[in-house]
Design brief:
The chain is α+β, with helices and mostly antiparallel strands. It has 8 helices and 12 strands. The strands form 3 sheets. The protein has a 5-stranded antiparallel beta sheet. Strands 5-4-6-7-9 form a 5-stranded antiparallel beta sheet. It has a two-stranded antiparallel sheet with strand order 1-2. The longest helix is centred in the N-terminal third of the chain and has 21 residues, at about 50-70.
Length: about 270
């Protein structure tokens, strides 16, 4: 027997009484009076503390029966954080897991496709072209593509350069001979002196691009044998890649102290990009 907080005395719950209560909870029905009396409970009403104890026992009993019956999910976590994590993991069971997205590894365009090599075709070879020492107000220019040389005044050259710049073009003049005293020989395009005949247009173009020459005076006191008959020159212009060989110098100008050659004759071979 036990006594609740109001002094009311109740019966001790027997195991048979507990089973009746638990089975009724499982079936979703209340305990009938006859069931209660048959289990030894009598007609006494349980109130106060006794009712609280019964409710706790019923809840525990139902949980135990559900676990033992295999219909419930056992959860042996001890803390709130553990239970939250367990519930989250169990909720996700049975869901398909998608692999993380990954970007396809494709080689870059530069490595996948090798750059196409530059190819050249021969335009002409071993054609003579001459440049004369000009007067002191202009220059002689060679146009390899047209295979011509011509004298241009300083005003002509300024106008040609301005027009080409406005049109986004290059002045189609490939090599010059200027300065009536010093005999300045050179080009605004890449060019350079080579020690031996290049193996082809690609080799000649590389030599011209790497030489970095501007101009050179053909006056004997300045030239000192750098450019003379037999000298090989490579240049890259809008006309293509040209191999020049100095064939001859004309007689000295005959006036002044510089004695620059009056004429320079070139042997020209020209390639263009295919």
């Amino acid at each position: 027997m036990f006594q609740n907080g109001h002094g009311t005395r109740g019966r001790v719950l027997t195991s048979q009484m507990m089973l009746v209560i638990i089975e009724s909870r499982q079936r979703g029905r209340s305990v009938t009076k006859n069931q209660w009396i048959a289990s030894g409970g009598g007609a006494a009403t349980l109130i106060g503390g006794a009712a609280t104890i019964i409710a706790a026992l019923i809840t525990s009993g139902v949980m135990l029966l559900e676990d033992s019956d295999g219909g419930g999910t056992q959860n042996n976590c001890s803390t709130g954080a553990d239970c939250a994590g367990r519930d989250h993991n169990e909720a996700g069971q049975g869901q398909p897991t998608e692999p993380p997205a990954s970007s396809p590894s494709s080689p870059s365009a530069a490595s996948a496709e090798a750059a196409a090599p530059t190819t050249y075709s021969l335009v002409y070879e071993h054609k003579p072209l001459g440049l004369s020492l000009p007067g002191c107000s202009g220059s002689w220019y060679a146009d390899f593509e047209e295979r011509t040389s011509k004298f241009y005044s300083d005003d002509d050259i300024r106008d040609m350069k301005a027009q080409a710049a406005n049109n986004g073009q290059q002045v189609p003049l490939d090599f010059y001979y200027t300065n009536c005293a010093w005999g300045t020989f050179g080009s605004a395009n890449p060019w350079g002196i080579v020690s031996s005949e290049p193996t082809g247009p690609e080799d000649c173009a590389d030599s011209a691009q790497s030489a970095g020459m501007d101009s050179i005076s053909l006056a004997p006191s300045e030239n000192q044998g750098q450019v003379e008959p037999g000298t090989l020159i490579c240049t890259v212009t809008d006309a293509g890649v040209a191999l020049l060989q100095v064939k001859s110098f004309g007689p000295d100008a005959g006036s002044g102290a510089m004695h620059s050659p009056e004429r320079v004759v070139l042997d020209v071979t020209l390639w263009k990009k295919s």
